[in-house]
Amino acid sequence: MTAPEPRYRRVLLKLSGEALQGDGYGIDGGVLAGVAEEIAEVRAMGVEVGVVIGAGNIFRGVSAAAEGMNRTMADSMGMLGTVINSLAMQDALTRIGQKARVLSAISMQRICDTYTQRRAMEHLSEGEVVVLAAGTGNPYFTTDTAAALRALEIGAEVLLKATKVDGIYDKDPTKHSDASRFESLSYGRVLADGLRVMDATAVALCQDNDLPIVVFNMRSRGNIRRVVSGEPIGTVVGPADTHATQ
Length: 246
Known about the structure:
Layout: E1 10-15, H1 29-44, E2 48-53, H2 61-66, H3 71-95, E3 100-104, E4 113-114, H4 117-125, E5 129-133, H5 143-153, E6 158-163, E7 181-182, E8 184-186, H6 187-192, H7 200-208, E9 213-217, H8 223-229, E10 235-238, E11 244-245
Helix pairs in contact: 1-3, 1-8, 5-7
């Protein structure tokens, strides 16, 4: 049986830092290797892949600022945390034979290249997974917003938001057994209802540029490939919405 044709030819995958930590703190080697294998599977389908990783497993700038740290300093530390995660992902991909390149919004030539759109496009065309680090390079912008921005800059057809649950629900599924998952939601609904899919700036940026977002469960092995293949998993955020489904 031949493998299905991918629905998308270029994607931007947004991972939280917590996606790499397993049950502890920092980076779990086994979890990291598993995520790298899934990304390599998608690349083997002929799909060009950009990745943005948060830093919540290492440091949260917003939380530190809430405790009294200068916000610019706190966000700068968070951006450096994303570089650590990105270098770890590059190493994990390289060890399984998948070429990868870290491009950082903050110049640090000794450890990785500096991001430019042209450079990212060149590496994607050469079959490398491009890991986009250090957010936007500016404080007050989350890695969700960085993911939306980079997705648009590289011409991604979709922004894949990997989470701990299998989509967006009408109520918290961890607290309510009767929670129903939405198959799709409009950008406007997400923004008007304050649904915590991504931060409002990221959603608005996707809305203004008609970039769809797919929210799906990262913890189910093979889900990245399923989403890229067009299987109806997770929740699609786009121009319109449907009713919730069990």
